[in-house]
Amino acid sequence: MRIEYFQLIDRIIDLDMDKKTISVEAQVPKESTIFEGHFPGYPIMPGVLLIESMAQTSGWLLLALMNFERMPFLAAVKEAKMRGFVSPGELLIVEASLVHEGSGYAITDTKIKVAGKLRCNSTIMFTHIPFPNPDLRVHMDAQAQRIGFPKQALLP
Amino acid sequence: MSTTFDQVATIIAETCDIPRDTITPDSHAIDDLGIDSLDFLDIAFAIDKAFGIKLPLEKWTQEVNDGKATTEQYFVLKNLCARIDELVAAKGAGAPS
């Protein structure tokens, strides 16, 4: 996880195109300037970044289901519950599943677990559009390679 | 059995917190009820679920942007309900929704 670059996902563990689910790993760093301010003497991962982690995980699922032809963007966080603190150094398992695939939008259910226990969950809505420019597509391809996106799962 | 309009009006009232009695078949979802595009996605989701269809929002938006259709054709509620009925009928006939 490189929080400062908004790289919150480290590795895809599982992508099931039939069940429309994904699981990823995200290692919270032991040190970050963010923890210096949130909070001094009591560092915890900000809830908005946990939501972003769930959104990014959902985004990779949607990218896969749309065959990397369209880019999802966060539209609405329908419900988000921070059920427990996430501390520096903890390993997050982030899971997402498709709830609904509409015309130009999609909804996912997503959760974060630490050591098998639920820490956060959310329902998130995305809009999606064809990639707005080639640069973004190149960037996403590079990020996909970084996190071990299984390109063989995509349609030919 | 409630009509398509009754169901859609209830969805809009509950989703957007709009008094049910202000919603009529001639209401324009955007111009009269003040529903924006993000709130309309919530409505579309609820309609998709309730009727087992997929409202072709992207196609409609493109047609409006291209000048091939007016917003009234899709967003005045009686017209929206007619489109929903068509999609439900097409689904029942085995066509892709």
Description:
The complex is a heterodimer of chains A (156) and B (97). Helix content of chain A is 24%, strand content 39%. Chain A is built from 3 helices and 6 strands; from the N terminus they run E-E-H-H-E-E-E-E-H. Chain A has helices at 33-37, 47-65, 134-146, and strands at residues 11-16, 21-27, 70-82, 91-101, 105-114, 117-130. Chain A has a 6-stranded antiparallel β-sheet with strand order 1-2-4-5-6-3, covered by helices on one side. The longest helix of chain A is centred in the middle third of the chain and has 19 residues, at 47-65. Chain B is globular, with a radius of gyration of 13 Å. In chain B, helix 1 (4-16) crosses helix 2 and helix 1 (4-16) crosses helix 5 (77-92). Classes of the chains: A alpha+beta (156), B mainly alpha (97).
What's the helix-strand series of chain B? HHHHH
How big is the Rg of chain A? Answer: 15 Å
How much helical structure, as a percent, in the residues of chain A?
Answer: 10-25%
| CA(first)-CA(last) distance of chain B | 23 Å
Instruction: Please tell me the overall pLDDT of chain A.
Output: 95
Number of helices of chain B: 5
Q: In angstroms, what separates the terminal alpha carbons of chain A? A: 30 Å
Sheet-strand content of chain B, in percent, reads under 5%
Brief summary of the model shown:
With 156 residues, chain A is of the alpha+beta class. Chain A contains three helices and six strands; from the N terminus they run E-E-H-H-E-E-E-E-H. Chain A binds chain B through residues 75-76, 100-105, 107, 125, 127, and chain B through 38, 41-42, 44-45, 48-49, 54-59, 61.
